[in-house]
Design a protein that fits this description.
Distance between the termini: 31 Å
Strand content: under 5%
Number of strands: 0
Low-confidence stretches: none
Number of helices: 5
Largest sheet: none
Mean pLDDT: 89
Radius of gyration: 21 Å
């Protein structure tokens, strides 16, 4: 719940920023000179790109959460079996051990979105966020029945 609240708060701040920057871009365009119109258009591009990234990220999170809910209903969510340091951080060797099992599971069933979901969690636990995201994107694509490229 805390992560969801943080995400919503961050998204709201970003949207406020995009509106603020966009209004400045419109003001520059309304000035009517060649320089201000050029700068105004350039300033408007930034919020458009930002909104696009925010939208794509929100779609990704919603789809990943939907997969998690479906997997939870099936009783297939990965169990947190990781050892932790006294400070609460995940032990690296423990994460590597679980990752090796998840990778083998995914290699055995490369077309199963569930194994890719669990691999994404293992990548995340191993602190490899880019690969975790790619694995989750593959899980989403397999779940939706879309053709996907190799990871």
């Amino acid at each position: 719940m805390r992560a969801k609240l943080s995400y919503v708060l961050t998204a709201a701040v970003l949207v406020f920023y995009f509106v603020l920057v966009g209004s400045r871009g419109v003001m520059l365009i309304q000035s009517g000179t060649l320089v201000t119109v050029t700068f105004g258009v350039a300033v408007l591009i930034l919020p458009v790109i930002g909104v696009w990234f925010l939208w794509k990220n929100t779609q990704f999170v919603r789809r990943a959460n939907a997969l998690a809910a479906e997997l939870d209903a099936e009783g297939g969510l990965p169990v947190d079996e990781l050892k932790r340091t006294p400070g609460g951080r995940i032990d690296r060797d423990s994460a590597d051990e679980v990752f090796a099992r998840r990778k083998a599971e995914t290699e055995a069933a490369p077309d199963d979105w569930r194994s890719w979901f669990r691999l994404a969690v293992a990548y995340h636990d191993a602190r490899d966020t880019p690969r975790a995201r790619k694995a989750m994107q593959r899980a989403i694509a397999l779940h939706d029945g879309k053709a996907v490229q190799q990871l």
